[in-house]
Structure formats: C-alpha cells, structure tokens
Records
---
Amino acid sequence: MHFKNIPLLGLLKANPELRLDAASEFLAEYKLTENHLAIVKRYIEILKTKTAQKKLIKILDSTIFTADNLKLGLISITLDFHSVANRNSCMVKLLAIALDEAKINKTIQNLRELELDEVLLNWFNNLLDTKFKELNYETITSISSKLKYNVLTTYISKTASVDSYAKLKLERTADINKVHSFFNDWQKHANLKEAIEKVFTLLAYEIKTSNLVSWYGSEQEFGYYSEDMLETIINGFYDTVFSDFLKTKDETIKWKRFANLEGRLKNQILFLYHVASFLSVLSKYSSFKFNTPDEYINAYTNELYKVDLHYRKAILAFDKVRDHLYEFESKAMPIFNDFNQKYDRFLIEINKEWQNVFIGATLCHR
C-alpha cells in the first residue's frame, strides 16, 4: 500500500511522537472528555486536518461525540460524502460504489486501513441477519442479492414451493420491517435512488425478477418493481385486455396510481385501462335498440357516453407512446387497430339505431 496516494491514511504513519499532544489539543478545542482520548489518538492525523474537521463538524460536539459517531463520520468521508451521513446512506453508497469493481476494492482497502471495514460489514449483517466475515466484492454481491429478494418479497408471507430463492427470505417481522425501512430511505435519497435499478440488476443479477412474477403472479404486490417486471406485467395486460377485460381493468386501476412508473410505461397502462373500460361498458349491451328517443338519450347520458370518453382517453395515451412502443409494438398495434374497429362498429350501430328510433317517433306523431 502506497500511503502517498492516500493522504489521510498516510498521515497516520507519520509523526507518532506528536499524536498524544495533538490528540489532547483536539479534545480541548472541541471540549471533549478524556474518555475519548484513545479513539481521537487513533485517528488524530486525520482529525487535525481542516478538511476532515469541516466534514465532521456535525459530530464535533461534546454532547454527541462518541466513538461510534466518529467511526460513522470517518466512514462517510471514506465513501466521499461531504459531511457525516447516516448509517443507511453509507450502506447504500457502498453498494453504489460496488458497481465499479476496481473502485470498490480500493474503497474497501481504505476502510480496512482505518479498521472500519468490519463496522460497515456488521451493519449489513444486522440488517439482513447474515454472518459475513469479510467485506469484499463477493460479499457485496451476496448482500445485494439477499437485499433485493427481501425487498421484492416484502408482502409475501409464505414463499411458494417453486421459489428457488426462498432460502434468502427473512422470517421475523422485525427483520422484514428493517429492510423495508432501509429501502424506503434509499428510494427517498436524492443522489442515490438512481442506483437502485443498477445495483439490483448488476450486483444482484442472480435474483431474476421475471421468475418472481412467474412464481407469484402479476396480481401479487411486490416491494419493488424493476423495469423488467413492469414490462412482463404490461405484456400480460396486452394478452388479457380483450379476453378478460374486467380483470385487466381492475388490475390496471392499481397501476394507474403507481407513482414510480416512467412515462412510456404509464401511458401504456392508461391505454390498456381505457380499452378495458371501453369494452366493459360495451359488454352491458347486446344491442343498441331503444323504444323511444328518451330511452336512447337516457342510455347515452347515463352510461354509453363512457364509450366515447374511454375511446378518446385511450387514443390520447396511445398517441403519446406510439413512437416508443419498442418491444410492445407487435402486441400493441393489433390491439390498437382492433380497438378502433370496435369503436367504428359502435358508432355505426348506435347512429343507425338512433335514426330508426327517431324516424319511428316521428311517424308516430304524424
């Protein structure tokens, strides 16, 4: 290890005879007690630098300074935070750094030089009820897989017999809740939430989300939806929108409200919902024959207007995504064309019946 390449670590090897006096001065400057002398002395060459003090300022207070808080602060610095981050943020940042294997190996080495690698590892062991002994790239991929699986299966209390990942499932409610809370923090982190998809796809690649959808069905609620899962679910809606429109309508209602859907997928959900709703209204009528104009008008104002409403909204949604269908195009276009044909037939039939009932009423009044 060349300490000249890591300035903060290199300082720990320099001037050992000055450490005690410098540590005492540090205690005095920040009004810390003698109880902290040992931990301050251990890291004094880092602590006495203005850069470190600026980043650690949140914990350099006698009321909150502890060995654990100092270690948290030093881990934060090693992970390139500009101030003391919370534990969950540090854990997430480590996973994000691991997307670059060379970078994570260097980061782990830096943590090891500060004797902080085991601290981070223990945080993960406590979160996931694991017993990993060494923090390395292989451990991080295993951590990512267990985390991904338990996030996905948050709402699954009993695993399926065909679930080959079931051995990873946390059993205790308290552990499941901890993972759920951790993942919520990750999703809310302004700078790190974008890493979720990459970490789960690249590091936790052994957990195939498509398998979980296959084993538990698209109706099962999952704690996280990858783009691959969403595409599988939407593909299923294309398959059922004509054959089982009531079920498709019910399921797409939930997805309409799903906040994390990107535009391309959300517009397809809206299209499918309105197609299913359109078919649902039409299914209530075997014909559009009415005895009087009033019956016709009442039927339209109370129910049949929804046919036009859902048609217009379906077309609007489809127009927004028409040029971005990609892998869905082979299914979406035939459905779009059939949908238009059904609407055309509806217009022809209802207009014909209106003319018939209107003419009939006119003749009766002569």
Note: The chain has a mean pLDDT of 92.
---
Amino acid sequence: MRKLSLLVTMAGLVLLMISASAAPLQQLTVDVGGSVTVTVDGEGPAAAVSVVLTIHEPTVVTLLATSADDTDPVIRLIDAYEREIITVDNNPSSEVAVKPSDAAFDNTMLIAGQYLVLVGRSGQAGSGEITLSVLPGKPDVIGIGSVQIIDGTLAPFERYQLPMPLEAGEVISIAAIGKAPEVDLRLTLRNPAGEIIARNDDNDTFDLFLSDLDPRLYHVTIGEAGVYTLLVRPFNDHETGSFALVIQRHGKLIGEPSTETLTGASEVRGRNTFFADFEAGEIVRLTARALNSSLDPELEVLTPDSIYVAYNDDHGTEATDLDRYDARVERLIVEQTGAYEINVNSVSGRGEFELVIERFGVFSAAVLPQIDASMGQVVVVTPAPPAIPPEATAEPSN
C-alpha cells in the first residue's frame, strides 16, 4: 500500500500484522478533543488495545500517540467498512509530535461514524504506557465546505452517472469510497461539452477517510457554469460493490483572472530569483518557459517564511504551449498572504526565459446547494465481444 510504505518503519512490521478482526484485551472510546491512556504489554494481536473513535461531523483531526518513556507507539486506523486506512509508526508528520518515536498524523475525516484505532507498540522498550489523543485540526484555506454523501451500488458492467449543475469559479472536491476492502473505483468529471476535465483512480491526498483504492478529484476549479457529468465506475468492468460518493462544494473564486510575464536570462546552473505578492486563498499557475533550445529550467516556490511549497522540473503535461523541458507548477493554492520567492533555476544550459504568473482568483467560502441525488442513474455498458481469432487459411490441395 502507498500509505503503509510511506509511513511505517521496518521495525514495526510485526505489529502491523494485527488483524482488524482480532479481539484485543482492552476496548476504550475517545471523541475528538479527548485522549485515553492505555498499556500495551507486548507485540502482537493479543496485546493490542482497541479504541473506538467517534467522529460526529466532518472535521480535520490529528491522531497522536505518545509515551513518557522509551515505548515506541504504533497506531492503525480501521473504518466502518473494515478497511485499513492508515498505519503510523515513527512518523512525526504533525507539529504536535514531540519525540521522533511519536506516532502522529493529521488530515481530514469527512465520514461521520465510528472508527477503530488499534494502539500497539514497536519493540519491547519502555513500560508500554501510551496516550492516544485526537486533537482538533486546522483546515487549509479552502476548508471542508458543504459535504453531501450519496450511496450507490454497481453490478458488473454498470456505471453510475450523476448530472451536477455547477457554477463558474466554483471549487469542488469529490471522492468515492468503496464499502468493502476489495472495491476499487474510478471517477471522471466531464464538462457540459462532454470533455474530461478531471479523473482519478487511486487518490494521493492521505485524507483519513480514504483507502489507497478510493479515487478523489481534489479542489477542482470549474471554468464555466453548466451541467457537468460525474461518472463512477469500477476499475474492472466485471467488479461489483457498494460505494459512498462524497461531494464537497467549498465555495467560489472571486476577482478577475490576470496574467503577468517576467523575463530573465540564466547562466549554466544559475539561479534567478523573483518575488510575487500572493493573497491567502489565491489560486495561481506558474510557468518557466525557455526561449531557446539550450536552457532547461526548473521552478521552486517558497513561502514568506522560506518554506518550500512547490517544485517542478519538466512539466510532464500534454500542454502544447510548452517544450518538454519547460517547468510548470500547474496549481498552487496560496495558504499565507505575503511575498513568495520564485526561483527559476538552470538544470542545464543557458539562455533567456520567461516566467508567467497566472492568477485565477481568490477563494471565498460559500454555501452552495446540494446536488439533486435523484438525478443519478445506473447505466449498463455493453461488454465488448471476445476477440475471435481469424480462421486458418486452408492450404491448397495438390
């Protein structure tokens, strides 16, 4: 799994074999804003402590497991569909983590209900006493928005499609949750002309309500008002299962779009620094375009606090206005108002370049109407006929 491989150290792999169906010795409860202290006597399923976490409404949380001594905490999150969402060991990804051995992770939980947190330990050092805290988190500048959940079921060779009247400048996020560990889905959003504007198979947002297989269209900006079409389909046509469609209508962009073009020249392996004033909530696109065949530019973006927030070398898109070695940060959502540092660096070569700053508007939260779920329908796709091998050509008789 992607999340597992990123967040779990090899020292904790024995503990991670705990089954969600195993019966731990202890079972406790915790809500957002609360904490509970448990004692984990050893490694393995029998020693794990089961804590039931209740989420009452869509929110951002930080899961934090700490110890006062050398105990190395590990936490594993299981959702109501018995799917493993994430396992965390030795990952101080949150500012609240104190020690390198603290297990910490913060992100969005949009599905209200009960989750199972298995609290364990990696190794035998320490007393085994671990405190699990569920802290209220801080949403990003886009926020959670208005959340709507639509349930559906797909049989083999079926698709679910939903007409969605959307507004110009709207920012929307859409996820599809498989209600069983084996359900693997895809999402596609088409504009009123039928063109694909966003699609996803397996998400990479690390939100705490999604498994690795759940697709998500994240912070999509709608260009023109009209009726868009959302399509939910299984990864393979023959698959079946139930799903929950999670729609977030965050708000809209305000202000007129604008474009600014700056120019410069770089020496081989040179760095060229520009500064641009951005406003929190602003959505921008940055492009470094070489004006000759020698220069290979890259882009770096730093916040007013000199924290790297974006980087690109070769854009890797299908854009026809760029050379293959040009750089583009396709979408930067500004979290902090201030002067941002933009570096156009030479990966190789020298020559003139232009830095293009496109501003699409400033996000403003707004309460938008829910999508009419009654308009959704399941359609059957005719399976392709099996390939028929060509008939063998008869050899001429003598």
Note: Residues 2-7 form the longest helix (6 residues).
